[in-house]
Amino acid sequence: MLSSKLKKKKSAVPQQKTTLTGTVLDETGEPIIGANILVKGTTNGTTTDLDGHFSLDVDRIPATLIISYIGYGKQEIKATAGKILKVVMAPDNNVMEEVVVTGYGTFKKSAYAGSASTVKTGELKDLPVVSFSSLLEGNAPGVQVTSSSGQPGASTSIRIRGMGSFNASNSPLYVIDGVPVQSGSVAATSSDSGFDIMSTLNNSDIENITVIKDAAAASLYGSRAANGVILISTKKGKSGKAQISLKADWGSNDFAMDYRPVMGGEERREYIYNGLILYQQRKLADKNPNISEEELMSQSKTYADGQIDKYAPIPWCGFTDWNKELFQKGHHSTYEASLAGGSDKFKYYSSLSYMKQNGIVQGSGLERVTGRLNADFSATDKLTVGAKILFSNVNQSVYDEGFTYTSPFYSSRNWATPSDPVYNEDGSWNRKFIRKANDRNPKLSAEYDYKHEKCYAHSIRFMPNTKS
Asked: Could you give the strand order of the β-sheet that contains 85-88, starting from the edge strand earlier in sequence?
């Protein structure tokens, strides 16, 4: 009886609890308000206050805590007595809500009242494109991207919700990291393709692209934004270990279809030969209706044999394939290296890129070297200083277009024939063509009459930012 009473008295003593305290922060070091803290396997939990702090009583030590918050990945932490916890949450890109970057801030897409489309380049990083405008094609609703030329680095026409004027410009305003920039063609020569200033950008340096389509664009940037605004945000560094990224890709391009097929040399010679026979037969039959078929055919062939070398001779080197002389299979190669990282105070992102693209016309191409450095330094809790530095060196080689003899598309389809050799037997350029007896050799023009554009672009921007 005595032992039984002692046991009951012992069980009546309450178990001692331990209080666990800590702070929950986001990836930038800011406190997270309302994060959930739960003891694993129980319903015992709490939430963080306005400063990200929490306090939780547990029955057993050590205890495993589960910390969760919307937009961040769950974390399990083993807690012991007497230790203040500091938990840094990592964003979960799979559950984060899409945001819209505007001229006056960043908003959740569901909370933004205007009409805007956001293109995240992280989802398009594996696309084999070399131009900025290619990222928008088919990825931004209401945006139409067209180009009057297929030359590397050619200027493109971007329209947001159609054309707004017949006389004035219909191009949108481009804003890179909050700064309006020049757009469109900056070609110094009278090239039909133009030279797009946006070709100085490295696609891998772009974090996201926001297209603002409605009147909200004009309220932000005035009349310049009457045709919409394209906001480009470049990448920034994040707290943590330095991350080194290396990327290389290669690709090729060619005609999507056989552009205006032309006859080969033998086929063309036979076609003209039969035409000469038919022409002479009709001429002889009109003069002498009683001529026999054998005599008619014999005289017609004699006439065709004497005239065929005037219209379709066999050159000394064999028939010329002007497609092989003027065109090629295009290809491009890109090599990139980037370094990103930082601490709670200092964050940085730097990159270096080299890109070379050869067009389908011999002699056409684009070569670009770009370098970028984005840095942010938190001097105090209320003062942040940043710098964004860009350097770009672009070389563009283009050819003539339109209805000129120097245009490879026009000349190879309209007046250069397979019977016209590129060179004479002595190795000099052939300058006497069947259809034009003057100096109009398209291969010679491609070798010496090319147009070359050079562009050096650099931008240095310092950005002090204060918090009240």
From this structure: 53-58, 18-25, 85-88
Nearest-10 crossing angle of helices 293-311, 265-287: 140
Which has the closest alpha carbon to 224: 331, 128, 103?
Answer: 103
d(C-alpha 448, C-alpha 50), whole Å: 71
**Cα 176 to Cα 222: distance, rounded to the nearest angstrom:** 17
- What is the residue-wise DSSP string for 90-136? -B-TTTPPPEEEETTEEEEGGG--S-EEEEEGGGGTTS---SSGGGT
Q: Which residue from 216, 218, 211 is spatially nearest to 114, judged by alpha carbons?
A: 216
pTM equals 0.68
Strand partners, 454: 395
Q: Tell me if 212 sits within 8 A of 227, measured CB to CB.
A: no
Task: Quote the CA–CA distance of 257 and 252 in Å, as a whole number.
Answer: 15
When pLDDT is cut at 50, 70 and 90, the band that residue 3 belongs to is very low
The residue among 323, 325, 358, 318 whose CA lies nearest residue 446 is 325
Q: Cα separation of 182 and 172, whole Å?
A: 11
Q: Does residue 328 register a pLDDT over 70?
A: yes
Unique residue bearing structure tokens 């063509």: 433
- Which token pair is 142? 């209401």
Residue with tokens 């370094």: 339
pLDDT at 353 over 90: yes
**From CA 239, how far away is CA 277, in angstroms rounded?**
83
State which amino acid sits at residue 422. Answer: V
Query: β-pairing, 18-25 with 63-69?
Result: unpaired
Burial 174-207, CB ≥16 within 10 A → b, else e? bbbbeeeeebbebbeeebbbbbbbbbbbbbbbbb
List the alpha helices (DSSP H) in 143-230.
216-221
95-121: b (≥16 Cβ within 10 Å) or e: eeeebbbbbeeeeeeeebeebbbbbbb
pLDDT digits (tens, 9 = 90+) for 273-282: 999 999 999 9
Structure tokens at 283: 């001429």
The percent helix, strand, coil of the chain (3-state, each to 5) is: 20, 35, 40
Give the Cα separation of 231 and 101 in Å (integer): 7
